[in-house]
Write a structure and sequence with these properties.
about 100 residues, mainly beta, Immunoglobulin-like, 4-stranded antiparallel β-sheet, 3-stranded antiparallel β-sheet
Length: about 100
């Protein structure tokens, strides 16, 4: 399993600002290793963020997203919202982390 994501959520005037740092190598499938062999593609391809059990953000990533992607978005919410961030990568590895809006 991969390293935990860093999820921060802060509320101001009814808007929750969510910042997520995902630890992942995000291999594009175009790089070669020292022996000249192509490193197989391996990247996060589906991301889902829920707040209070409802979807607030969904994304589909491709091979062009950089290593350890950072994501920032806002939604209408309140302090205390439970935020659950989940992703699935091309090797079907999964990761889920949670945070509470402050």
């Amino acid at each position: 399993m991969s390293d935990p994501m860093r999820v921060r959520a802060t509320e101001k005037d009814g808007i929750v600002d969510v910042k997520i740092l995902m630890k992942h190598d995000m291999e594009s499938g175009q790089r070669k290793d020292a022996a000249g062999k192509v490193v197989p593609a391996w990247f996060i391809n589906v991301l889902n963020v829920k707040a209070q059990g409802k979807d607030v953000f969904n994304a589909q990533f491709g091979p062009a997203v950089s290593k350890d992607p950072f994501l920032n978005f806002k939604y209408k919410g309140s302090k205390g919202d439970k935020i659950v961030v989940s992703w699935v990568d091309t090797k079907d590895d999964k990761r889920t982390d949670e945070a509470t809006a402050s």
